[in-house]
Write a structure and sequence with these properties.
By secondary structure, this protein is mainly alpha-helical. It is 63% helix and 7% strand.
Length: 204
């Protein structure tokens, strides 16, 4: 909204102060995301503000709109978390992805299954390291034709046989790479659906 949209200077100052608060909270996001969020909120305020234009004074109207919209910090936390997660996904930054997922979980996001899958992915990386330093305790083990375990085993019977040997390392690396790009691709699709602010569903 512009200054020309207001007749009351006080009403405009209330609006401008609110938008400034929003801008300060989301300033760590990329410029495109900042503009997108500001425009979405601004549009929402404008649509609510013009209701009952001839009935309610401007200052009272803008105060009602802002009060019903709520404190920016409260409803922007999940938005920021989603945008940061999206940014990490686009860069294929696994640690950024995990931080972003954790942030969304703290703000009520639903990515528990995704966290588990990425942690399993990291565990494969740890197995590669374990195979280098503890080759006799790490691998795919069978005993008497039965599966014993896959991974790092602290206690192994003498009869147990490790099948892959050092081939476990390239197998894990290739599997991790394929699984990582697949998981990130799926997560990107999920986040793309969830990144809308959903402000239009907020009752004003």
């Amino acid at each position: 909204m512009k200054r020309s949209d207001f007749d009351s200077v006080e009403a405009y100052k209330i609006y401008a102060n609110y938008i400034e608060q929003v801008n300060d909270i989301i300033s760590m996001l990329p410029e495109d995301d900042v503009l997108d969020i500001i425009n979405e909120i601004d549009s929402h305020i404008y649509e609510s503000f013009i209701c009952n234009k001839t009935v309610v004074p401007e200052k009272e109207r803008i105060m009602i709109v802002i009060r019903n919209l709520g404190e920016p910090q409260s409803y922007l936390k999940p938005v920021i978390a989603e945008r940061q997660l999206k940014q990490a996904i686009n860069k294929y930054n696994i640690f950024g992805i995990l931080r972003g997922i954790w942030a969304t979980l703290l703000t009520g996001g639903q990515y528990v299954a995704t966290v588990i899958m990425y942690l399993l992915l990291l565990s494969c990386g740890f197995l590669v390291i374990a195979k280098i330093f503890y080759p006799h305790k790490t691998g795919l083990f069978i005993e008497d034709g039965s599966f014993v375990g896959l991974g790092f085993l602290s206690q192994i019977n003498a009869e147990a046989v490790e099948l892959l040997g050092y081939w476990l390392i390239p197998v894990l690396i290739v599997s991790c790479v394929i699984f990582y790009f697949f998981m990130t691709f799926i997560l990107k699709k999920i986040v793309r659906i969830k990144t809308n602010l959903n402000l239009k569903n907020k009752q004003i």
